[in-house]
Fold this sequence. Notes:
Elements: H1 2-41, H2 47-51, H3 59-73, H4 83-98, H5 100-120, H6 139-196, H7 198-214
Helix pairs in contact: 1-4, 3-4, 5-6
Amino acid sequence: MVVADKEENKTEEIDELEALDALDKEASEYKKDAEIDRILKAFQLDAYAVLNLQPGVPDPQIKAQYRTMSLLIHPDKSSNPLAPSAFDRLKKAQVTLLDAGARTHLDECIADARTLLLRERKLTVDAPEARQLYEEGSEMKEAWRRKTVEVLVEGEQRRRKQAKAQMQEEGREMRRVEEEVESRKRRRDHETAWEESREGRIGSWRNFKGGKAGGGGGGTAAKDGGEAGPKKKKKIKVLG
Length: 240
């Protein structure tokens, strides 16, 4: 009887552990899904927003944050079908922030957004309202975020427009080069054909000159195709 009670208690403990494990697993999956959703909803041109970091953080913190988040949402450890897309965005955000040029451009856009926002609201950087820019959850911070999105979008539109214009210019230059190459090829073909027909032209000229020289001497040709005879001497009449 005692043994049976022990077995029953052991079974109950196992059931409780399994239930706790299931709850932990469910909580873990929920946390992963929530983070994947946050990454995909973050404005992807703002690498700080994707990595959930504040502007100006040092490189080691960027790397540490990426490692923590990548382990959490890695496609191999998540059943969420959107995990690969979120992981790719996370990776691109880290690459952007660790690239000096790309990060400088992003920092400048964020600073421009702050300046524009303060100018629109007629505030100075020392104004009490301006301090709310750095307060989490404040209306000013949210307005700064929206203004940053506007600045980044405008910058991306300019970049794409410039890239398109450059591609068109490169296309025109390529067509010009191709036309020049084709023109040179036609000239070469013409010169080659002229040289190849040179002997023929010389032979025709020689035949022409030879025929002209052969028909210039001798007596007059007989009528109706007869052979030319010797010229008759004219008789000289003697006067007197």
